[in-house]
Design goal:
The protein is mainly α. The chain contains 45 helices and nine strands. The strands form three sheets. Strands 2-3-4-1-5 form a five-stranded parallel β-sheet, with helices on both faces. A two-stranded antiparallel ribbon has the order 6-7. It has a two-stranded antiparallel ribbon with strand order 8-9.
């Protein structure tokens, strides 16, 4: 049962030398929990530095709280690191009777993870179940979760604990973990951490004197010097120094001996003084690792272990026992005894333990036998393979990969080893570790050849190359592997990724060839896809570059959308391609269902792909914060998985948000990092996206010439960013920038391209963009007709940002033709949308125009020191660095008129040249600012 305040046998809070700051931090966490707030903390530092003592302190303080604290405690062990959810089982064992209070799906997932039932398990539901379970307990009294030696906790439990530690702020739940290394990365990423460092010399002396009060001063000084502030060394070294003298602090070469070996020597020296059966008992307990006294006792039957052996082991102080549980006095004790034992003895201990385990303990038996093996052993390898299958059933992919890798090491036949490595690679990929998957796949191919590994891994090499490598090479692999993998469904998945890889490379020739091969596959062998094939084939038709219009897109019903959500993400088109054809509508719901499915299966790399694709659609729907959160989560997952190209997609989506919001620093950061990956790898889809985002950022900031520098290359053959889909999607921005910069030829060509695409596909975005661009180039009634057509088009309301951009341009035109009331209506509507979305720069532009439209009287009403409204606007744009022609294009006047206005502005402001405009306070009283200290 969890320890609660007032239970019998609870120790008083012990004194810790030199740990006031650390204990104060822990006490504050408990005080916060008493007030209803949760918190987490990772204590990290070298072995023996005192982390366990600090955990004992926080447990003792919690046990002394009058109102009661529920304490759940466990410790990671090296032996149990191979058992999925083994540490979680030990942690939650006292409160398993509370599982019935959880929602049914969570309870089933947690029971499956803990081996209580055969229910399928997935990490997201398991993590949610643990959070719900502890939140329920915390409604009765605060909860303290303590996990020592978290570096040895199995991977599945570690991810679950990390999930919990990041979500306890709103409940009185305190999570305290210890680790040997800095937890900045890995499962504890994002959890507050504190390093535990060595004691000062003064505190170290106090500890040694407390442990060995009869030690002489010189001995105390020698121990302090050797220990380096490590409290465990300070406690244990007196037994070594007292018996062997100061010489034990040096290696054979005369160098100072590290603390670790000295401590191992101290613990082993104690064990050597015991009789052989007792030493065997200690070795068995160290090898068992779980603290199960019954298993250790049964295994010791053949080693002459009897009651006297137990008595001597307990009297030695190295081992403690309570009921059916045994525990060493410190985690370094079993490590030292195990490492100090001869290898044949260690192997014999593991074989003895495997022999006495219950029949259902497949994973434990497999790992004991694998540790005992001294050469290839097919029976043990097969048993490990079974254990890996159970890990996969519980979504413990990393552990499954590690288990299969060990099975491969023990496989006598290279073909079996290759098969197991290929399966391990797939498990690592599904768990989100692309680097590990690639290494395992390379090892498998060296042992078994390419084709057998392709069959076993489901064509993983092409998927990996598409995710982290060269898209043209990925296309080559995928096309070849489509004819090798077993099953039409897998072939369809690889075939669609082959088309997508060619699209990513900006190679229409390869794209068309891959599409032809995909459509030639016999889909009759995949009856489960029959209900969704019409929708999928309509999406695949978007890849067709022959000029044939896409067939009418079937509107899927709710049932079909649900089924599409269960198909592999590989079968879906890239969102930008679907957007260009205007057939992305059903994708939003499909991707949402897919994300939920992938979370349940804990397929992290695929989840990152789906999340960022959905984020693009959320941005277009005006859900910018939802889009930002999804892209940020996808970026974290992609970085953890090592999926470089998916991470670049995430960065580019965040950059697009930053461009719309006027954050140029974030645009430069995200696009720069994406281009550093995409350009060398030839991923033109990503490079084109980066150029487009940079162009939009410049356009929104009023720098049309800079915008064109980024946008025009999208349609230049051979350029690193040339890509037909992105050139088309960016065409409205290119035409708008060209209009403002006076590049009428470029504006006309891009307007014609958008208009032609609108006629070919009927895509709503293309129709409205074409109308907006025609309005920019027109004048008089024609301009208004085109603006109204753009705003009235069906479907534009789903993209509020683009609608607001159109209203801004229309409002500016209305103000210029002096229809001020109509202008104010459009401009205020645009400003309101920009404000809601956080598009700061465009909102400021709309408000400036709104201010001009609010002025009464004639167009030349004075403003400031004798400037008319039009003169003020010209002066502001000139001060921003725009040329006369760019100002003329922006205000729809001639460049000669701009020159005339500037000729009037200079004498009114008391300046002599255009350069002086940069020093005019345009936002204030239009006075010349004093020069700074540099001139």
């Amino acid at each position: 049962m969890p320890r609660r305040a007032g239970s019998p046998g609870v120790r008083g809070v012990m004194e810790l030398f030199g740990r006031r700051a650390e204990t104060a931090t822990l006490d504050r966490l408990l005080d916060g929990a008493a007030g209803g707030a949760g918190a987490s903390l990772v204590l990290w530092g070298e072995p023996g530095i005192g982390k366990t003592a600090l955990l004992d302190h926080v447990v003792d303080v919690a046990s002394g709280v009058a109102s009661g604290v529920t304490v759940l405690r466990t410790r990671g062990t090296r032996m149990e690191a191979g058992l999925a959810f083994g540490a979680l089982h030990a942690l939650l064992w006292p409160v398993l009777d509370r599982l019935g209070a959880l929602p049914a799906p969570q309870a089933a997932a947690l029971r499956g993870a803990l081996g209580i039932s055969r229910d399928p398990a997935n990490r997201f539901l398991i993590g949610a179940a643990v959070v719900s379970l502890l939140s329920g307990l915390a409604r009765e009294r605060p909860v303290l979760v303590v996990v020592d030696d978290a570096q040895w906790v199995d991977e599945a439990t570690a991810h679950c604990l990390g999930f919990l530690a990041r979500r306890v702020r709103t409940d009185p739940v305190v999570v305290v973990l210890t680790d040997h290394a800095d937890p900045a990365t890995g499962p504890w990423e994002g959890v507050p951490a504190r390093e535990v460092v060595g004691l000062t010399d003064d505190d170290a002396r106090r500890l040694v004197v407390a442990v060995a009060p009869d030690a002489e001063g010189a001995t105390v000084d020698g121990i302090v010097a050797m220990a380096g502030g490590n409290p465990l060394a300070l406690r244990e070294l007196p037994t070594v120094v007292g018996d062997a003298g100061a010489g034990t602090s040096r290696t054979a070469s005369g160098e100072p001996m590290p603390v670790g070996p000295r401590l191992q020597q101290a613990f082993c020296a104690r064990a050597e003084a015991l009789k052989p059966a007792t030493r065997a008992l200690l070795l068995l307990a160290a090898a068992e690792g779980r603290g199960d006294r019954r298993v250790v006792d049964r295994a010791g039957a053949g080693w002459d272990v009897d009651a006297s052996s137990w008595d001597e082991a307990l009297r030695s102080g190295l081992l403690h026992a309570a009921g059916d549980r045994v525990q060493f006095r410190h985690p370094l004790v079993p490590a030292a005894l195990y490492d100090g034992a001869p290898v044949p003895d260690r192997r014999a201990a593991h074989r003895a333990l495997a022999a006495v385990l219950p029949a259902g303990a497949t994973e434990e038996r497999a790992w004991h036998l694998a540790t005992a093996a001294d050469g290839p052993d097919e029976q043990v390898a097969a048993l490990l393979e079974q254990a890996a299958e159970r890990c996969l059933q519980r979504s413990a992919g990393p552990l499954a990969a590690r288990t299969l890798r060990r099975a491969a090491e023990l496989s006598p036949e290279p073909a079996d080893a290759a098969r197991r490595l290929a399966t391990a690679a797939r498990a690592a990929w599904d768990a989100g570790d692309a680097g590990q998957a690639r290494r395992l796949l390379d090892d498998a191919e060296r042992l078994g050849g390419v084709e057998p590994v392709v069959r076993c891994s489901g064509g993983l090499r092409g998927i990996l190359e598409f995710t982290v490598g060269l898209p043209e090479r990925a296309h080559h692999y995928l096309v070849a592997d489509t004819g090798v993998v077993p099953g039409t469904r897998t072939a369809l998945e690889l075939g669609t990724v082959a088309v997508r890889a060619a699209w990513s490379a900006g190679r229409p020739d390869l794209q068309q060839d891959a599409l032809r091969r995909l459509l030639a596959l016999d889909t009759g062998g995949v009856p489960e896809l029959a209900p969704v094939l019409p929708t999928l084939q309509a999406w695949w038709a978007c890849y067709d570059v022959t000029g044939t219009p896409t067939p009418p897109f079937p509107a899927p019903d709710a049932d079909t959308v649900g089924l599409l959500g269960t198909v592999p993400w590989e079968l879906l088109p890239p969102v930008p391609l679907a957007q260009s054809w205007g057939v992305e509508g059903p994708l939003r719901d499909v991707l949402r269902v897919q994300a939920a499915q992938l979370r349940r299966r804990h397929e992290l790399a695929a989840l990152a792909v789906v999340l960022v694709q959905g984020a693009v659609l959320d941005f277009a729907a005006g859900r910018w914060e939802v889009a930002r959160a999804a892209a940020a989560e996808a970026l974290r997952l992609a970085e953890e998985a090592g999926a470089d190209h998916v991470a670049s997609q995430c960065r580019l989506h965040l950059a697009n948000l930053a461009a719309a919001r006027g954050d140029t620093a974030a645009v430069d950061e995200h696009t720069g990092r994406a281009l550093a990956v995409s350009v060398p790898q030839g991923v033109r889809a990503l490079s084109a996206s980066a150029y487009w985002v940079r162009g939009r950022a410049a356009l929104f900031a009023g720098r049309p010439r800079d915008a064109l520098r980024h946008l025009v290359p999208l349609e230049e053959p051979g350029h690193e960013a040339a890509h037909p889909t992105f050139a088309l999607l960016a065409a409205p921005d290119t035409a708008e920038a060209a209009t403002q910069a006076g590049r009428t030829d470029t504006a006309a060509s891009r307007t014609a391209a958008v208009s032609a695409w609108a006629r070919r596909t009927g895509a709503a975005w293309a129709r409205t963009a074409a109308d907006r661009l025609h309005a920019l180039a027109a004048s008089g009634p024609d301009a208004e007709t085109s603006y109204r057509a753009a705003l009235d088009a069906v479907g534009l309301a789903v993209d509020p940002f683009e609608q607001a951009r159109t209203r801004l341009l229309y409002g500016e035109w209305l103000r210029r033709v002096r229809r001020r009331a109509d202008a104010r209506h459009e401009l205020s509507g645009a400003a309101e949308v920009f404000a809601r979305l956080g598009a700061v720069g465009l909102r400021e532009r709309a408000l400036r125009e709104l201010g001009l439209a609010a002025q009464s009287g004639t167009r030349h009403e004075p403003s400031g020191p004798g400037l008319t409204v039009q003169e003020l606007r010209v002066a502001q744009l000139a001060a921003e660095g725009l040329t006369n022609r760019e100002i003329a294009a922006r205000l729809l006047i001639s460049h000669r008129t701009v020159g005339h206005h500037l000729g009037s502005v200079y004498p009114k402001l008391g300046i002599a040249s255009r350069a002086d405009l940069a020093r005019i306070d345009m936002a204030g009283d239009l006075r010349l600012r004093a020069p700074g200290p540099d001139g």
